[in-house]
Amino acid sequence: MAFSSTPGPKCWFLVAALISIAVTCCKSDLVENDPGQIVAKAILCFNNKYIYSSCEESYRLNESGNLNVPPEATDQFCNGPCLDETNLVLDCIDGILHNFLFYNEATIQDIRDTISAGCGDTSERGNFNVQQHIQDEYSHAYSDRSHLMRLYLPGSMILLFALLF
User: Fold this and answer.
1) Among residues 8, 30, 82, 133, which is most buried (max CB within 10 A)?
2) Contact in structure between 115 and 127 (CB atoms under 8 Å)
């Protein structure tokens, strides 16, 4: 049986993830030394049963950066435990990794802006489309490419863990 000398797609992904981690480690402004551990702590915020305890699971924010709150559930989300618990998750992430970037490239501030608009008393009430706030001219997303490289670490680490486990 002959083996191919060209690496497969999983190998290339692993190489890309390791390069992303190396770039992040070299340019990081984080105080702690282990970026993987920092990201793992931030990701635990999404699954913390003490934070998310009463909010309906389908309305919860996750690593994707989407808020799947239908317009008819706006009052339930905004006037119930979901709003407080989602803000606690964002505070948890921000306290661990202030420049966290969700899969959809939203920042923590983009999510906060979306929640504010979706729960506000304007024409945007009930609209929890995070993507619209990322593309908004007032978006807080980073535009500097070197800064973006550091922010892709959370996504890279999550994908790496998903492939390995």
Assistant:
1) 133
2) no
Copy the structure tokens of residue 157: 């680490």
CB 1 within 8 A of CB 137: no
| Apex 164 CA angle, 158 and 165, nearest 5 | 90
* pTM for this predicted structure: 0.62
List 107's β-bridge partners, or say none: 101
Q: Packing angle between helix 153-164 and helix 9-27, nearest 10 degrees?
A: 140
Residue type, 92: C
Beta bridge partners of 101: 107
Cβ neighbours around 137 below 10 Å, total: 4
- Helix ranges (H only) for the chain are 9-27, 35-44, 74-79, 81-96, 108-119, 130-135, 145-151, 153-164
Residue 92 CB neighbours (<10 A): 18
The closest alpha carbon to 23, from 162, 161, 126, 146, belongs to 146
Domain boundaries, the chain: 9-23+33-164
CB 84 within 8 Å of CB 59: no
